[in-house]
């Protein structure tokens, strides 16, 4: 806290000085509109809860799981008809990045089904043995720097899910269909399944999402989600359906399913989804 400034005698500003001040204000506003999103505020001070650069040689088990909370021996999302079974051996930390790798490995899974591919995923959410998420936030910012794999049938994603173990609300910072790496797909699925689930598709080229590194993020404040690409706002969702509960992070590389369709002979395996860093903070 700073001392309140003492009142000063009023004096008239020369009109040239007034013009100069106004010009400075206008220029500042123009820079803010053209660059990063304007600062947003939330209740409480900003606090970093996850700052992961993947500089070590192993995944930090105090922050990350390698499967969804509903299965210990691996997992998939059956409702999507995906072709992969997630396994911890498909997750690695190397060369300063997290590497989630999909490969054509036939696997007889613990759910009684056989899968043609194994792949990697990580989450900061709950586990089968613990209802508490390892890292979750209610309002704040999330940002991840990544390079996605191209190839028909590949489906990399970065998203947020509720710490309550419910399947909604869902905030999708990144989805990409491997056969079109120049399209970033954003979704928001509200808790109310009868409500609309808005989405946005953004073209990214020179380089696309597979050719070089990009960052995606979300700035989450009460009643508002601002999605970002490479530090710039690209989509805003507002309203009462915006979540107000703790949510955790998921990053995965799915194979096949109703959304991307199956891979074909043109798909190069092994395929790797690389994440350079992830940051999560609460507050402004």
TrEMBL record:
Q: Which domain of life is it from?
A: Bacteria
Provide the GH16 domain boundaries.
31-284
The record's listing under SUPFAM superfamilies reads: Concanavalin A-like lectins/glucanases
Q: Which family does it belong to?
A: Belongs to the glycosyl hydrolase 16 family.
Question: What is the name of the protein in this document?
Answer: GH16 domain-containing protein
**What is the species listed in this Swiss-Prot or TrEMBL entry?**
Microlunatus aurantiacus
């Amino acid at each position: 806290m700073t001392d309140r400034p003492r009142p000063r005698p009023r004096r008239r500003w020369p009109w040239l000085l007034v013009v100069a001040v106004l010009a400075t204000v206008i220029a500042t506003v123009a820079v803010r509109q053209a660059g990063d999103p304007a600062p947003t505020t939330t209740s409480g001070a900003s606090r970093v809860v996850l700052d992961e650069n993947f500089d070590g040689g192993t995944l930090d088990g105090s922050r990350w799981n390698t499967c969804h909370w509903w299965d210990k021996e691996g997992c998939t999302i059956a409702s999507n008809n995906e072709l992969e079974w997630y396994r911890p051996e498909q997750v690695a930390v190397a060369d300063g990045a997290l590497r989630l790798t999909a490969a054509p490995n036939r696997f007889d899974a613990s759910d009684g089904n056989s899968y043609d591919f194994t792949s990697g995923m990580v989450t900061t959410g709950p586990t089968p043995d613990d209802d508490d998420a390892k890292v979750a936030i209610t309002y704040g910012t999330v940002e991840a720097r990544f390079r996605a794999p191209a190839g028909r049938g590949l489906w990399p994603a970065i998203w947020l899910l509720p710490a309550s173990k419910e399947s909604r609300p869902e905030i999708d910072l990144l989805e990409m269909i491997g056969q079109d790496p120049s399209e970033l797909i954003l979704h928001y699925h509200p808790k109310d399944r009868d409500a609309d689930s808005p989405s946005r598709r953004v073209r990214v080229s020179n380089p696309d999402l597979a050719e070089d590194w990009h960052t995606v993020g979300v700035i989450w404040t009460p009643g508002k989600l601002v999605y970002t690409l490479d530090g710039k706002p690209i989509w805003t969702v507002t309203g009462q359906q915006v979540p107000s509960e703790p949510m955790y992070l998921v990053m995965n590389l799915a194979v096949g399913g109703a959304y991307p369709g199956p891979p074909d002979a043109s798909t190069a395996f092994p395929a790797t989804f690389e994440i350079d860093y992830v940051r999560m903070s609460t507050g402004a």
